[in-house]
Design goal:
Oligomer: single chain
Shape: globular
CATH superfamily of one domain: NAD(P)-binding Rossmann-like Domain
Order of helices and strands: EHEHEHEHHEHEEHEEEHEEHEEHH
CATH topology of one domain: Rossmann fold
Distance between the termini: 33 Å
CATH architecture of one domain: 3-Layer(aba) Sandwich
Length: 334
Amino acid sequence: MPRILLTGGLGYIGSHTGFELLDAGYEITIVDNCSNSSERVLDQFETYCNTRPDFFNGDIRDSKFLETVFAQKPIDAVIHFAALKAVDESFEKRDEYFDVNVEGTRVLCEVMEQFGVHRLVYSSSATVYGVPERNPIPETARLSATNPYGETKLACEKLLIDVATQSPAWSVIILRYFNPAGAHQSGLLGEAPKKAANIAAAILEVLRGIRAEVVINGVDYPTPDGTCIRDFIHVVDVARAHVVALKAMDTSTGCKIYNIGTGRGQSVKEMIVAFENAANQSIATRVGPRRDGDVVVAIADPTKIERELGWRAQHTLQDIAESAVAWIRKSAHR
């Protein structure tokens, strides 16, 4: 079976995608430096998939390290998740974000070329759209990131488009995620970053007793309840999109870009209520200031990937909340 290299494969979306790939019959190799993840995730692979993936702990900016990985076993394709990803932190650590995200991607592409691996699925973000001119947002919308994290994703997209344009051997698919949340149905995987950087992760920290309250950054936006509206998508739906993208590259070259979202918008307050219903408890909140770089409304137009690849999100906001609550309750007993 084809062997897929997952950079950042122990992280939130990477690990869920690893589960889906193994379920689909692929073999996987994982590269991760564990800066925002843990090697304990390998135990969950063993429990759920009855296999422990090959794992290499290292930095994607280190070409010698990557060469060692590629030399171990033939790699058929790469799914590139590894990146720094906190919007607020990216303002404080702009240079580091560009170094890890953009330089890391450049080094990865060079090593892939060296080993004749020309198929890449790239983990991008809806942050590349900045403040959208309209919602839902199509892939053809104007690109203008409002924060350094989004700027790094946009720079990586341009780099990959150039790579695919300059060499007909390459097949690149860029997936622009909107707002992944939720947990795997097995209860073995969920979102547990070392620092919560989004509303879902913050809610989970309250439910786990790590923090006392969720800070709602802004309640004076021009939306029905005053909070930002996002396209929250179940992480398993996001993971499934990568399997679909890999299969599509069997018959395509060049670079294609797809939104990964539901096409439905829900507010931050609606997200909190969904978790309260799932957990059957109230969640303490506090109003905080607006965050730099936040847009008011961001909803995906997913019709392109539905039409071309047959992928569509299957889960609701309540599914997201219930799966995440089930995960934290199960993990509390491990």
